[in-house]
Write a structure and sequence with these properties.
Strand content of chain A: under 5%
Strand order of the largest sheet of chain A: 1-2
Number of helices of chain A: 17
Largest interface: A-B, 81 and 82 residues
Shape of chain B: elongated
Radius of gyration of chain B: 29 Å
Strand content of chain B: under 5%
Distance between the termini of chain B: 26 Å
Largest sheet of chain B: 3 strands, antiparallel
Oligomer: heterodimer
Radius of gyration of chain A: 32 Å
Order of helices and strands of chain A: HHEEHHHHHHHHHHHHHHH
Shape of chain A: elongated
Largest sheet of chain A: 2 strands, antiparallel
Number of domains of chain A: 2
Helix content of chain B: over 70%
Order of helices and strands of chain B: HHHEHEEHHHHHHHHHHHH
Number of strands of chain B: 3
Number of helices of chain B: 16
Structural class of chain B: mainly alpha
Chain lengths: 534, 466
């Protein structure tokens, strides 16, 4: 009997114009929105690949540890076109080196971007976005489910009981030998079937648009995530449908239940998801961008002062003729025993540099850790705003659904957090590797061995014999024979384990709500006395 | 007229007794109070940030002027931060301000930016502020539809409509009574919400409202009333067109979703597709190339053999001006494209009265995009003022290298904070704001007028049974 009721209900829903209209609107919006998300994802993928390629070209033959630049990246999630989330605002790539913590992973622009393009103030601006259009809602499949299909769930369910009550058919139905539970369950299954069809249409429309792009290719894990997204969306819509039925059970007139449901929808869809982040951003205030710029400048200044102090502490050996052209211009400044690149020099000078560079790198490594901490604290504060917004937002199932959809699609900010943490771990690993390989001393500034450098006496003889040209020739020959730095660690981003996603609070909430609503609706319907129309 | 008064009174009393009016009343008041409390906190934070940035910028400029060497060069070469003054009415249309950049870095050579004073949190999605745009656009419009969607259909279902129409009362009077019977309680509800907001603002906010603000608040009532009237008439029209209240409710809900969500979003989406954006990094690379060419051309033309790689010093001023011109030109182009896209999105969204109301309130309060445009113009103006001061004070030949005596001559130029241009802080007058908002208010009048005419035509041509 349940199946007969369900089938009849499903057919009834499918032939209504409200179903057709909402489905048409949501499909058109999904197609339009997805095409924009696909274009953005393509740009992100292009940027990501271009940066990786550029970095490979630049650092493929780094011969000193100072020259080593490694990329840490996470590919923009392929399902970003179904649920964009906040991923477009979060970093996907960062460059790191011995003295360069991967600050980009925390949303800090590169020195060049900071200085030339966008300044500090636009720390999180994705370069191709229009900063004057940031108020744009991201329209994608998840948005269509959260707004239009949730409205459809209410529009289908508001008169499921009260409509029949008003027309008097409910009394006739329950007068038969059909249990009230069966009626309720049949209607629920019919509604869920209808919602499943509309979901399938919207999802397929989005997938068709997305898969037209040659850059987007879904793997097995992505297809499983698509399936999960469908299931979670259906769970969410079923919850709303049951809520609609509960309200419909309570009221005598469909218009009253519609008014109540529209109010619920306004609060759940429009009010809470907007008010929660807004309130969170005000309640947990962030310092300004110029404040961070000032603090960053202070750490850079203290770094320079420390190097100057090192210079005062360790004057050059009196035997070395200072001012001689044996050091490339990449010293930090003046007579400081700290070299970034050394191609030729007397061995006495090299010894002076080895001691100084080892000492200098010891405190430079600590100092860049301070820089990292400065922005990490900022990142943590941003996340605490997000956490507060999440907790306030969970008063609405729409917020929980959006959160969960982002987690499934891999566009949730937690992915960005994982990336930043792993990027830092990788930087620590790189420093440990450098320390082990002598990359914080001699190999920091030259690939040559200490013995390859001539003693001052021999160096002077070479100078006398052929001048600078001769010296350069000899050392360039030696330099050519050296090998690039080998055995460098490689970064591999480890995404969130699927079990963490599955056991998330939002999923529990989304599962509990329909169950609670159903029990509530069931008891309401069972205990309510129905009367036939006079 | 007596009949109309009677119908209105009866309708008002009917509305006031309904559950739905009570809920809507409470919802509007609650949201309005929450909105203004959050706006007060936002105002406090934004004012503190503005003051901090402005005083920091002032201090830096003063320090540059007190330098013994390179004073002149540093004062004009380095940028001064020019921030947008926080709006005095954040609870009116402050959402637009929050999502827009609020800072330009201005020097004699370039306008850099726009930048954010406090960048939005990237881990949180865009959130609408609970301002008048939100309360009216989302809640008041819904309330108008909720109060009217079954105004006629319900009477038809209960068979009272035929009885009313069989009296010697004009149909238009009945419909006008129903419309005003919903419109007046809604406007009273809204007025109470505004009164509460103003009371709280005056009690708790740091900045009191000026006469100009009060004028804006007064004039803002016009678009809001037109907007509410449109939705009231739309609700009645829907109620006339369908016999079942359920069907009327469904259509009303869909219309509301289309006006509040679909059209504004689709307008922005279409603008993204129709107006392409330049890549700022590519623009910067182009500018770098053009600057290098300009430098070489300048050196060839003036016979300067100096091959300095540094910016400004010791290159002549003329060289620096021509080398910086491509950057300014490229960035002006990038900013122009951004603005064009935002303007197109606004134009396309104007098909919805919700978007039109938003833009009219933004124009009146000089917030959101109109406020940004004014701010960007002021940044350009500030740049021109600094540049003309540089040119007027520059004691050397434009093509002269800044070395030795020339450098000393530059350092000797008297520079004080009093002679340096103050950042512009001009606000549009009330008249200018009204003129700017007039097209949107006219559009809202058109929407409301159209809804009125169609409703009137429908009620007069339709049979009583629907």
């Amino acid at each position: 009997m349940i199946w007969i009721i369900a089938r009849r209900q499903l057919l009834d829903y499918l032939i209504t114009w409200r179903f057709g209209l909402v489905l048409a609107i949501s499909t058109v919006l999904v197609v339009l929105g997805t095409s924009l998300q696909v274009a953005t994802l393509e740009e992100q993928l292009e940027d990501y690949e271009a940066r990786q390629h550029q970095l490979r070209q630049e650092t493929g033959d780094a011969r000193t540890f100072n020259e080593v630049r490694l990329g840490v990246g996470r590919r923009p999630p392929m399902l970003g076109f179904l649920c964009a989330g906040q991923d477009q605002q979060l970093p996907h790539f960062a460059t790191t080196g011995i003295l360069y913590p991967p600050l980009e992973a925390l949303g800090v622009p590169t020195a060049k971007d900071r200085f030339w393009y966008i300044g500090w103030g636009a720390i999180q601006t994705f370069a191709r976005q229009n900063p004057l259009m940031r108020g744009l809602r991201k329209i994608d499949f998840a948005f269509a489910v959260a707004t239009f299909l949730s409205l459809l769930a209410f529009l289908l369910s508001f008169d499921s009981i009260s409509g029949e009550r008003e027309t008097g058919t409910l009394f006739l139905v329950i007068a038969n030998s059909v249990s009230r539970g069966a009626i309720l369950l049949g209607k629920l299954l019919g509604g869920m079937g209808c919602l499943a069809i509309s979901l399938a249409v919207a999802l397929n429309a989005a997938l068709i648009v997305g898969l037209q792009s040659p850059r987007i290719a879904l793997g097995t894990a992505d297809w499983i995530a698509v399936g999960l997204l469908f299931a979670v969306s259906l769970l969410f819509l079923s919850g709303l449908f049951i809520l609609g039925m509960v309200v419909s059970c309570w009221t005598d007139r469909p218009s009253t239940s519609l008014v109540v449901l529209l109010l619920i929808w306004t609060v759940a869809v429009a009010l809470i998801p907007n008010a929660a982040p807004y309130a969170a951003s005000l309640l947990r205030e962030m310092p300004s961008e110029s404040e961070y710029a000032r603090k960053y400048a202070e750490t850079s200044q203290s770094l320079q002062e420390m190097l100057d102090e090192l210079g005062h502490r360790s004057p050059p050996p009196s035997s070395i003729p200072m001012g001689a052209d044996f050091v490339n211009s990449e010293r930090i400044s003046g007579f400081i025993p700290y070299a970034r690149k050394l191609s030729w020099a007397p061995r006495e000078a090299v010894d002076w540099y080895i001691t100084g560079t080892e000492e200098g790198n010891r405190f430079l490594v600590d100092s860049i850790d301070e820089q990292w901490k400065l922005f990490d604290v900022r990142f943590v504060r941003l996340l605490s705003q997000r956490d507060l917004a999440e907790w306030l937002g969970r008063f609405s199932p729409v917020f929980s659904f959006s959160n969960l959809a982002e987690r499934i699609a891999g566009t949730h900010p937690s992915v960005g957090v994982r990336f930043a943490r792993q990027a830092k771990q990788f930087h620590d690993l790189l420093i440990a590797f450098a320390r082990q390989e002598g990359g914080l001393g001699l190999r920091f500034f030259t690939p040559l061995k200490r013995e390859d450098f001539h003693l001052l006496v021999d160096y002077q003889q070479l100078w006398d014999a052929g001048g600078m040209e001769r010296i350069r020739e000899i050392y360039e020959e030696k330099y050519e024979k050296t090998e690039p730095v080998q055995g460098l660690p490689v970064f591999r981003f480890r995404p969130e384990p699927p079990l963490d996603v599955a056991l998330h609070t939002d999923l529990i909430l989304l599962t509990l709500l329909p169950a609670l609503f159903f029990i509530w609706g069931f008891f309401t319907f069972i205990h309510r006395e129905e009367a036939g129309r006079p | 007229m007596t009949a109309l008064k009677y119908v209105i009174l009866r309708e008002i009393l009917d509305q006031l007794r309904t559950f739905r009016f009570g809920v809507m009343f409470l919802l509007i008041q609650t949201i309005a109070i929450a909105g203004v409390l959050l706006a007060i906190e936002q105002d406090r934070q934004e004012r503190a940030l503005y003051e901090q940035t402005r005083s920091q910028s002032h201090k830096e400029l003063k320090e540059r002027m007190e330098q013994e060497r390179g004073k002149f060069i540093n004062v004009f070469r380095k940028s001064t931060r020019f921030c947008r003054i926080p709006s005095s009415l954040p609870f009116v249309a402050g959402a637009g301000d929050r999502s827009l950049p609020g800072l330009f870095q201005v020097s004699a050579f370039r306008v850099r930016g726009p930048e954010d004073l406090r960048a939005p949190n990237p881990t949180i999605g865009h959130a609408e502020q609970i301002d008048w745009n939100f309360i009216c656009g989302i809640v008041l419009s819904l309330a108008a539809l909720v109060l009217t969607f079954d105004a006629v259909s319900r009477e038809r279902e209960e068979k009272t409509y035929q009885m009313v129409m069989s009296n010697s009362i004009r149909r238009s009077t009945v419909i006008a009574g129903k419309g005003l019977g919903a419109f007046l309680p809604l406007m009273a509800t809204w007025s109470l919400a505004v009164a509460l907001q103003l009371l709280l603002w005056n009690l708790l906010a740091e900045a009191p409202l000026s006469v100009r603000d009060w004028t804006v608040i007064l004039f803002a009532g016009v678009p809001i009333a037109l907007f509410t009237a449109f939705f009231v008439l739309l609700g009645i029209l829907i109620s006339l067109l369908f016999n079942s209240s359920g069907a009327c409710g469904t259509v009303a809900a869909l219309c509301w979703a289309i006006f509040t969500l679909v059209i504004p979003s689709a307008g922005q989406l279409l603008a993204f597709r129709l107006q392409s954006l330049p890549d700022p990094k590519a623009a910067e690379a182009r500018a770098e190339e053009m600057a290098a060419q300009a430098r070489n051309a300048f050196k060839l033309e003036h016979g300067i053999g100096h091959q300095s790689s540094s910016w400004w010093f010791p290159d002549p001023l003329g060289l620096n001006l021509s080398a910086q011109e491509p950057f300014e030109k490229e960035w002006r182009n990038v900013r122009g494209k951004w603005e064009a896209q935002a303007r197109l999105a606004r134009s396309l969204s104007r098909l919805s009265p919700v978007a039109t109301l938003r833009y009219s309130l933004e124009e009146l309060a000089n917030q959101g995009f109109p406020g940004y445009e004014e701010f960007a113009q002021q940044a350009a103006e500030y740049h021109r003022e600094i540049r003309s001061l540089l040119l007027s004070l520059y004691p050397l030949d434009m093509n002269e290298l800044i070395e030795g005596e020339a450098r000393k001559k530059l350092d000797a130029v008297p520079l004080t904070l009093a002679t340096f241009p103050a950042p512009p802080s001009r606000f549009p007058t009330t008249g200018e704001r009204l003129v700017a908002a007039a097209p949107d208010i006219a559009l809202l009048t058109l929407f409301a007028g159209l809804a009125f005419v169609v409703t009137l035509a429908t009620v007069n041509r339709q049979s009583v049974t629907g």
